[in-house]
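hey m, so remember when u said the tokens were messed up on ur end? i reran from scratch. heres the input so u can diff it against urs
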Amino acid sequence: MKIKIAYINLALTAAILVVFAGQTAGQSVNEATWQTSVDDSQRGVVTLGVRDKWGTMGSFTAKFVATIGKKTYRGQMSSSQDNWAYIDFPREFQGSGPKAGTYRVTFYVKGVVIARDRFRYRP
């Protein structure tokens, strides 16, 4: 009887491990489902955002690199689970004197490019 219970316990443990394998926090950047947001509808500020849609990464720090011509602006913001990491351009970015125009933005998490987009900045 004890052996039968031990086998059942082992089988249940194995089944739980199989069901939940790959669903724990801390997965790789490439396994996460990323969403990005660009809101350039207001003058003087562009709000950029990124989130891990299913929260599989746990916590993360997103880096944002905006470029226009040869000028580069950098910013970063942290978040966790499936919460958005929002950052405002140019207020929360390093770099001086942003000018009006169309910028290219690259979104990074752990050094991996997760998305690219564009936005129009109007001072």
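this time it looks ok to me. Helices lie at 2-20. if urs says something different then somethings off w ur setup not the seq
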